[in-house]
Structure formats: structure tokens, C-alpha cells
Amino acid sequence: MGAKALRQKKKKVLVIGYGGTIVMIVDEKTKSVKPAANLKQVLALLPRLDEVADISMEILSNKDSTNVTPDDWTRLALFLYNNRDAYDAFVITHGTNTMAYTASALTLALGSGFQKPVVLTGSQLPLTVYGNDARFNFENSIKVAVEASNQGIAEVMVVFSDVILRGGRTVKVSESAFDAFKSPAFPELGVITSTGIHFSPIVRRVDKKARLELNPNFSTNIVSLDLTPGQLPSMVESFLTIGKCKGLILKSHGAGSVPTEGEYSFISLIQKAVREYKIPVIVSTKFLGGNAYKEINDECAVRAIEAGAIPGGDLTDVMTEVKLMWILAQGAFSEKQIHARILTDYVGEVTEANVGLAKLTASK
């Protein structure tokens, strides 16, 4: 087989530049670090990358990921959707600060009918710094995208360090460690070793029967708060009275419990939000790998449910926020409809066992 035929057999991978330290380079004139302007500058530092795949690159944004908004999630989802037939796989470079949010958003926006692997990656150090992790992550992301395409895997994934994580289950756990991302409530999708890419049997594969439905919009009118000892519900209620809040998330001290005594009780606030203001209230857990209302045997959690709170199950705190924003953008659902959707498993973002939990608590 000739070289031309071999080139034709390479998977076509589109690298989508959306900022991040991973695509920073040194300006030869000013010696300052700046975003790469095109693929040529990146490939000059990764000279053998094109041996793995037929790579194209399009830079959509160079913004700091701290400034990423739901508008960016929508833009990325639409771009992926419009280019789905031209490429075998996609790699998105992204800053680490909000990468888990973008990965979670894309899993919901693209749904189960998107038949191509999407890999998000980033780095703690730029390519031009000695001892950087950018080269390792960039090269491995391309290899993961190619191997996922070869195996018919259809997942939105985060590749960082030597692990492959489900996008909708990923959280950032460190601002500086090379293994900055984890999937605390769900197993890793795979690992990267010296012997290659090793996927777990739990990966989602191409389902020809799944209907491709793009739902790329997100409502920004939610309030998400960590519950802290001594927090006054009356202060939180002010968010509800201005008329713009469409959803409230309370991050619990435990497995869905909220304060229930005296002036610090959140029970009345939950009742007012749901019954008077018609605002859904989600009670999640702030703990990594936690599960809100896992057993529903905590009195403070039971009272929150009875007041109208919706349990967050084992959704990550990131996915809880993103999913509520996504659900609210789909239409004017009733409280019971939102309740059912929060714990409905759309793309592997929540454990199936919680679907029964949703039905049980919705009836209370």
C-alpha cells in the first residue's frame, strides 16, 4: 500500500481552538506568551502530530476560560453540529477554569444522537515551558479522539494527564496539579499508558437508532448558593423577589439536608420559592462524589423534599447548575416536569438508580 493510500486512511480530526494555556506560544519579538494564531504554529512544536491523524484546526476563541458563558457553549455546540459530517472526531482546547462546565454543557446540547467523539483538553503550562504538560495532553487527546473513532465511541470526554473522563461527570479538583480533573461519582472512561489508549466497557458507543437532536440553549437566570452555618434565608429570598430568578440551587452540607430550625430554617424559603414564586429549588451536595438524598433517611433532607425541593442525586455540582440552565431553556415546564428531568439520565450524567428516586420524591 502506498503512502498516499495510508494518508487517506487517517482519521480526520478537527482541533477547535477555544483558548487555554495549551495553545499559548512565545512571541519571538516581544518574548511574551500569547495565543497561537494558527495550526502551523502549534504543529511546529508538535512536529509528529500529523502522523497520528489528518488534522485541521480552527480557532474560534482565545478568551480566558473564566470569561466563558453559556453563549460560548451554544456556539461550540452549533459548530460541532454543523461540522459533524466533515470529520471523524473533534478535539477542543480550553482553559481549565471552566472546562468541566463546557464539557457538561456539550454533553446535553449534543445529546445521545451525536455520533462522533468530542475531546476537551487543556494544560497547566504552555507548550514553550520546559517540563510542560501541554504536549502530553495535546498528543494524547488526538490519540484518544482517533482511537475513540476507531472503536465507535460517541462520548464528550475530558482528557487530562493520563485519564479519560466522561464530560458530564467531570469536575476540576486542583488549580495547579497536572491531574487537575476527576470524576468522583463515576468511573474513568479510560486510561492512557505506555501501551496505548485503554477504554473501559462503560463507554457510550454509536447508537444508530438514537435520534440526533440539538438542544444548544441555556438559561442564565439561576442562582446557585453554598449553604453555610448561620446563613439567613431572608437574604437568599431577595434573589427571588426581583423577578429574574428562574431556578435556585442550594448546595447542602450533607446528602440533601438544609437547616430547619428558627430563623435559619430554609423550609419556608423553599415553600415560598416553589408555591408563590413558581421557582424550582434543587438541593444538591457540595461534596465530591456525593449523592443528594441517596437514602432519604435524614430528617433535614426529608423536610426539604416535603417543602418542594428537588433532589440532585449524584449529579456533580457543575452538572447540576448546567443541567438546570439547560432544562429551563427548553421551555416553560411545571415544577413536576423539571423535577422529573433533573434526575432523568440523558447522556450518562446521572446514575440510573436515581430515576426511581425522582419518581418517589416527585410524588411527595
Summarize the structure.
With 364 residues, the protein is α/β, with parallel strands linked by helices. The chain contains 11 helices and 16 strands. It has 2 domains: 192 residues, Rossmann fold (3-Layer(aba) Sandwich); 141 residues, 3-Layer(aba) Sandwich (Rossmann fold), CATH 3.40.50.
What does this structure look like?
This protein is an alpha/beta fold and 364 residues long. It folds into two domains: 8-199, Rossmann fold (3-Layer(aba) Sandwich); 222-362, Rossmann fold. The chain contains eleven helices and 16 strands. It has an eight-stranded mixed beta sheet with strand order 4-1-5-6-7-8-11-12, with helices on both faces. β15, α8 and β16 (310-311) form a beta-alpha-beta unit. α3 (70-82) packs across α4 and α4 (99-110) packs across α9. The chain starts with a helix and ends with a helix.
